[in-house]
Amino acid sequence: MNEPVRAVFHGFEQIPLREYAERAYLDYSMYVVLDRALPFVGDGLKPVQRRIIYAMSELGLGATAKPKKSARTVGDVIGKYHPHGDSACYEAMVLMAQPFSYRYPLIDGQGNFGSNDDPKSFAAMRYTESKLTPLAEVLLAELGHGTVDWTPNFDGTLDEPSWLPARLPHLLLNGTTGIAVGMATDVPPHNLNEVVSACVRLLDDPDATVRDLCEHVRGPDYPTTAEIITPAADLLTLYETGHGAIRARATWTREGQDVVVTALPHQVSPSKVIEQIAAQMRAKKLPWLEDIRDESDHANPVRVVMVPRSNRVDAEQLMGHLFATTDLERSFRANFNVIGLDGRPQVKDLKTLLTEWLQFRAGTVTRRLQHRLDKVERRMHLLEGLLIAFLNLDEVIRIIRSEDAPKPALIARFDLSEDQADYILETRLRQLARLEEMKIRGEQDELAAERERIAAILGSQAKLRKLVKDELLADAKKFGDERRSPLVARGAAQALAETDLVPSEPVTVVLSEKGWVRAAKGHEVDPAALSYRDGDRLLAAARGRSTQAVAFLDSSGRSYSTIAHSLPSARGNGEPLTGRFSPSAGAAFQTLATGEPAARLVLASSLGYGFVTRFENLVGRQKAGKAMLSLGEGATVLHPALLPGGEEDRIVAVTSAGHLLAFPVAELPELDRGKGNKIIEIPKAKRGTERVVAVAVVGSGQTLQVKSGARTMGLSYRDLETYLGPRASRGGLLPRGWQKVEALDVE
Q: In this structure, are residues 693 and 655 in contact, taking their beta carbons and an 8 Å threshold?
């Protein structure tokens, strides 16, 4: 007979790995969201902050107490309530003590708690001491008045508050940041007076819109005097949607010729800004500045002095460039993602956030009043029994002396409750003897009036709102201050173009045969007379301005460009162009050109083909260059010839056989790139041996210099009529002895 199959429990549960991983990650995600990273809308604190403040209150570290070692507080926090790393806990504690990090610090730190220049340079917790600031009473004052729920700590041996009974919307006052799983929060700090004013407006007018509330909350208020330059319309959108961005800009002033920065955006380090500016100065991208120094001290937490090269430097333009390229202007993300009263994270607009907090505050005040009402009624109940005992003192004493169980006897004799009987029995005889009926009745009257007042408030929403309003205004009067971060309408900062930052000076750019480049100041420099590395010599040179781009063409017809002022000085041998650009394998640099973007020039190859193009077509930011001139087999790039711009300009080309052709510029088409059209005819039989040596453009009144060895022959504009012909023709033969032309120049 078959026996029934019996399930055997092995002490573990078998579930699919996919289900287990999903469940475990979801649990972890919810823990991080609810118990680590996001603040609660009620007290505006994350769990670690709440536990630090509560632990300090339990240690008696109030604003008037003597501070204790921070290690003592951290030990209590991680040992009793927050079983995590001590360094992370201490860092959270330090953050709440830094006046440059928190708009309204909650902890008064003594010792090295970091600096604005390096917020994490604080001393170890065994060296520092701390206590709570007076503002912390806003969070803690009503803790013992039945205003919060209590939950067991991690090991169940102690109770801790689920939240703190904040009397002010701390979430907006100090803001917070946090990163959870799949979500984050970034709430900027705000001014206490402005937030309270918005709360009062909402209490008086529950239908007020976000736009109405923004008449009070004009924008964030960071613990720095740097300007907030976000437009008012963008700030309104931020408060209406619960997310957006805020731009802050450093403030500066002129002291004589110097430019002095007096305030930096929130969490921006002076040393970092100085390093950013110095890096631009080292890279020759900020020639307007001669020096920068940090003069920050205790009296002036931020004082960065910049020394311009001359009094002609436009400070507004300079600072605009620095705002656009350094942390002197910074953008902060805002994301009002908080845990609401329903226990769920949600991005909230300003009205929803303040409405929920006022609901939280009304609930807290109600619980406080109810707690006080219960105590008043209990006290009145006890006083009623005590008055009976006082009026019947002899009988009470007789019962206590004669009865074995005086409590039931008292209850039966005077119709008392157990609490009244216990209170009478616990009262010392000498105290009872001193009591007077008038005093008891006086206390009863006071308690009755208080009970009536509390009951009236609890029974009227209007009176409850007025009480909340009055307490908000009282706290604002006690702790409020003026706005620190001014709201200023500013235009967007614009980084200056590289050419705008450099003085326009004449330069001569020199390229050697081995591809080394340098720039000499002035146009009177003789490139051939410069010193070159062993085995190297002059290949080509071009005269231009330091603010102009320089284009280099290689043997593949590709063009590469850079700004002239960025090239090394001609005092040395320069630098190889291969360090800046990446030409194709086997390609060598053959010539260069410089000029304004709109300048026109003739680009040609040694095979006699070319075209007119604008200089801007040669300029590109690609390190690999851009295809410009299509070359045939064995062809080389000729030195480009700039067009003077006259209507009578003539293009001149000369071959290695001494044939020279001149024709009007209009006959050669203008292209952006390509092979171009034939400039001068080279017979098919001579194409292997004859080539074009050079091209030039001669304007009316100019002279063409034909160079052959050490000799130079000058041909005036009129002399060129002898060599005039249609484009692509053979041209005329130069006189005997001048047919081995090496170069053409124009004067």
A: yes
11 torsion bin: left (phi>0), alpha (psi -120 to 50), beta (else): left
Q: At what angle do helices 406-414 and 350-391 cross, to 10 degrees?
A: 90
**Best CA proximity match to 650, nearest among 614, 683, 607, 602:** 602
Give the 3-state secondary structure of residue 103.
Answer: coil
Q: In sequence order, which residues have a C-beta less than 8 Å from that of residue 167 and are 6 or more positions away?
A: 138, 139, 141, 142, 361, 471, 472, 475
* Helix 418-426 / helix 350-391 crossing angle, nearest 10 deg: 70
Catalytic residue among 20, 25, 31, 127: 127
Angle at 89 between CA 84 and CA 94, to 5 degrees: 175
The answer to whether the beta carbons of residues 45 and 164 sit under 8 Å apart is: yes
Quick check: 304 and 255 in contact, CB under 8 A?
no
- The answer to whether the CB of 76 falls within 8 A of the CB of 55 is yes
Nearest partner of 726 among 647, 659, 662, judged by Cα: 662
Comparing 8-12, 435-439, 498-502, the range with the smallest average pLDDT is 8-12
Kindly tell me the burial class for residue 28, based on how many C-beta atoms sit within 10 Å of its own C-beta (0-12, 13-18, 19 or more).
exposed
DSSP string, 712-730: EEEEETTGGGGGB--TTS-
Q: What is the pLDDT of residues 169-227, one digit of tens each?
A: 999 999 998 877 678 899 999 999 999 999 999 999 999 999 999 999 999 999 999 99
**Rounded Cα distance, 103 and 561, in Å:** 50
Question: 437-458 and 350-391 are packed helices; what angle lies between their axes, rounded to 10 degrees?
Answer: 160
Does residue 621 contact residue 569 with C-beta atoms inside 8 Å? no
Rounded Cα–Cα distance for residues 245 and 444 (Å): 58
Tell me the backbone φ, ψ of residue 608, rounded to 5 degrees: 95, 15
Q: Calculate the CA dihedral of residues 500, 544, 615, 511 and round it to 10 degrees.
A: -120
Determine whether 532 is an active site residue: no
Q: Which domains does the chain have, with CATH numbers?
A: 46-135 (3.90.199.10), 251-327 (3.30.1360.40), 502-595 (no CATH), 598-615+633-747 (2.120.10.90)
And the tokens for 309? 């090269």
Binning the chain into helix, strand and coil, the percentages to the nearest 5 are 35, 25, 40
Cβ-contact 437, 387 below 8 angstroms: yes
**H or E segment and range at residue 274:** helix 270-282
The phi, psi pair for 667, rounded to 5°, reads -80, -15
Which of 607, 663, 640, 615 is closest to 746 using CA atoms?
A: 640
Residue 421 to residue 444: CA distance in whole angstroms: 18
CA-wise closest residue to 338 among 183, 493, 460: 183
Backbone angles phi, psi at 512, to 5 degrees: -95, 170
Confidence band, pLDDT 50/70/90 cuts, at residue 79: very high
C-alpha torsion angle, residues 63, 67, 72, 73 (rounded to 10): 20
**SS3 of 381-435:** HHHHHHHHHHHCHHHHHHHHHHCCCHHHHHHHHHCCCHHHHHHHHHCCHHHHHHC
pLDDT value of position 179: 79
Nearest 10 degrees: Cα torsion 589, 593, 598, 604 = -70
Tokens of 345: 């994270």
List Cβ neighbours of 342 (8 Å cut-off, separation of 6 or more). Answer: none
Contact 171, 104 (CB under 8 A): no
